[in-house]
Amino acid sequence: MTKKIFIKKGDNVMVISGDSKGLQGRVLLINPSRKTAIVEGINMVSKHTKPNADNPKGGIIKKEAPINITNLMVIDTKGNPTRIKMVKDKKTNKSVRVSKKSGEVIK
User: Fold this and answer.
1) Which CATH class is domain 1-75?
2) For 60-77, what is each residue's pLDDT tens digit?
3) 9-84-64 Cα angle (round to 5)
4) pTM of the entire structure?
5) What DSSP string runs through 25-56?
6) CB within 8 Å of 88: residues ≥ 6 apart
7) Does residue 33 register a pLDDT over 90?
8) Is residue 6 within 8 Å of 97, Cβ to Cβ?
9) Where are the domains of the chain?
10) What pLDDT sits at residue 40?
11) How far is Cα 20 from Cα 16, in angstroms, rounded to an integer?
12) Strands 59-64 and 67-68, sheet pairing
Protein backbone atom coordinates (compact mmCIF):
# COMPACT_ATOMS: atom_id res chain seq x y z
CA MET A 1 0.00 0.00 0.00
CA THR A 2 1.37 3.41 -0.94
CA LYS A 3 1.06 6.43 1.30
CA LYS A 4 -0.76 9.51 0.02
CA ILE A 5 1.38 12.59 -0.53
CA PHE A 6 0.04 15.64 1.32
CA ILE A 7 2.77 18.04 0.15
CA LYS A 8 1.83 20.11 -2.89
CA LYS A 9 3.65 22.44 -5.28
CA GLY A 10 3.98 25.92 -3.75
CA ASP A 11 3.91 24.75 -0.10
CA ASN A 12 6.44 26.12 2.35
CA VAL A 13 8.31 23.20 3.88
CA MET A 14 11.06 22.52 6.41
CA VAL A 15 13.68 19.80 6.05
CA ILE A 16 13.56 17.55 9.14
CA SER A 17 16.53 15.26 8.38
CA GLY A 18 19.62 15.07 6.22
CA ASP A 19 22.35 17.55 5.31
CA SER A 20 19.89 20.44 4.87
CA LYS A 21 18.14 19.83 8.22
CA GLY A 22 16.38 22.93 9.59
CA LEU A 23 16.30 24.83 6.29
CA GLN A 24 13.03 26.11 4.83
CA GLY A 25 11.95 26.62 1.24
CA ARG A 26 9.11 26.54 -1.27
CA VAL A 27 8.28 23.35 -3.20
CA LEU A 28 8.97 23.81 -6.92
CA LEU A 29 8.16 20.31 -8.19
CA ILE A 30 6.72 17.02 -6.88
CA ASN A 31 7.47 13.60 -8.38
CA PRO A 32 4.81 11.25 -6.92
CA SER A 33 6.17 8.08 -8.53
CA ARG A 34 9.60 8.52 -6.89
CA LYS A 35 8.19 10.25 -3.78
CA THR A 36 10.61 13.16 -4.16
CA ALA A 37 10.32 16.93 -4.27
CA ILE A 38 12.52 19.75 -5.48
CA VAL A 39 12.63 22.58 -2.93
CA GLU A 40 13.91 26.07 -3.71
CA GLY A 41 17.42 26.58 -2.29
CA ILE A 42 17.57 23.15 -0.59
CA ASN A 43 19.86 20.18 -1.39
CA MET A 44 22.05 22.17 -3.82
CA VAL A 45 24.44 20.18 -6.03
CA SER A 46 27.13 21.25 -8.51
CA LYS A 47 26.53 20.15 -12.08
CA HIS A 48 29.30 20.35 -14.70
CA THR A 49 27.97 21.48 -18.09
CA LYS A 50 29.40 21.73 -21.58
CA PRO A 51 29.02 24.99 -23.49
CA ASN A 52 25.60 25.28 -25.16
CA ALA A 53 23.19 27.95 -26.41
CA ASP A 54 21.86 28.72 -22.90
CA ASN A 55 25.31 28.78 -21.29
CA PRO A 56 27.98 29.68 -23.92
CA LYS A 57 30.93 29.29 -21.53
CA GLY A 58 29.74 26.10 -19.82
CA GLY A 59 31.22 25.43 -16.38
CA ILE A 60 29.81 24.49 -12.99
CA ILE A 61 26.15 25.26 -12.24
CA LYS A 62 24.52 25.04 -8.79
CA LYS A 63 21.02 23.56 -8.91
CA GLU A 64 18.49 21.91 -6.60
CA ALA A 65 18.46 18.12 -6.40
CA PRO A 66 15.41 16.04 -5.44
CA ILE A 67 14.84 15.33 -1.76
CA ASN A 68 12.68 12.53 -0.35
CA ILE A 69 9.21 13.63 0.77
CA THR A 70 9.62 11.80 4.10
CA ASN A 71 12.36 14.34 4.97
CA LEU A 72 9.97 17.31 4.56
CA MET A 73 7.33 18.81 6.84
CA VAL A 74 4.78 21.44 5.80
CA ILE A 75 4.91 24.80 7.60
CA ASP A 76 1.49 26.11 8.70
CA THR A 77 0.36 29.75 8.67
CA LYS A 78 1.84 30.36 12.15
CA GLY A 79 5.29 29.28 10.94
CA ASN A 80 5.45 25.92 12.73
CA PRO A 81 6.30 22.63 11.00
CA THR A 82 3.28 20.33 11.28
CA ARG A 83 1.75 17.10 10.08
CA ILE A 84 -1.32 17.22 7.87
CA LYS A 85 -4.69 15.51 7.96
CA MET A 86 -7.50 15.56 5.43
CA VAL A 87 -10.92 16.77 6.61
CA LYS A 88 -14.20 17.23 4.74
CA ASP A 89 -15.25 20.89 4.56
CA LYS A 90 -18.86 21.13 5.73
CA LYS A 91 -19.80 24.05 3.44
CA THR A 92 -18.34 22.78 0.15
CA ASN A 93 -18.24 19.05 1.01
CA LYS A 94 -14.66 18.83 -0.35
CA SER A 95 -11.53 17.49 1.33
CA VAL A 96 -9.18 20.15 2.69
CA ARG A 97 -5.74 19.88 4.27
CA VAL A 98 -5.64 20.83 7.96
CA SER A 99 -2.67 21.36 10.27
CA LYS A 100 -2.61 18.84 13.11
CA LYS A 101 -0.95 21.35 15.49
CA SER A 102 -3.03 24.49 14.97
CA GLY A 103 -6.13 23.05 13.29
CA GLU A 104 -5.98 25.70 10.55
CA VAL A 105 -6.72 24.98 6.88
CA ILE A 106 -3.60 24.91 4.70
CA LYS A 107 -4.11 26.56 1.32
Assistant:
1) mainly beta
2) 999 999 999 999 999 998
3) 35
4) 0.83
5) EEEEEEETTTTEEEETTSSEEEEEE---SS-T
6) 94, 95, 96
7) yes
8) yes
9) 1-75, 80-107
10) 96
11) 8
12) unpaired
